[in-house]
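Sample intake sheet
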Amino acid sequence: MATRIRRLGRLVGTCAAAVAFTTASAGIASAVPDPVSVTTTAFQVPFTGVIGDPFPFATVSLAASTGANPGPGVVRLSATSMCPAFTPNANCTTYAFATTIRWLNLSTGVTGTATVPSGSFGVPGQEPVVDVPTGSGHVTATVLGASSGTIVPGLGYFFVP
């Protein structure tokens, strides 16, 4: 009988140690936050307008990036390419003229205006991006050119964590 109790004691002790180790490991693992992934959403309707040089009529594609950088409640708007309106995807350039974006957070009702500056990708300090504090929620945006020559306003819809 004493042998049985000792075996049972060892078995219970081993199980208790395994449970304690598993619980402690799970506690350590859960203390490390999951990395927030960056999500980039292209505007569903690109802006088309009278630009001038190098194309008289151009289509400017924009994108919204959310996640770890720039942070929660903030969206990074960027002009990604500019192409001739009549020959899409031909002779595109990464240079973008300043564009005005009007946005509406559909979850909170907050509105605002931001301007993506002119610039060129790959040139430090001159990239056509702007960080906009929209707050968390579903956001819609309308893009108008800096000039009055808007042919088709750009439209985008994205979620900001």
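Comment: Confidence is low (pLDDT under 50) at residues 11-35. DSSP finds one helix and twelve strands in the chain.
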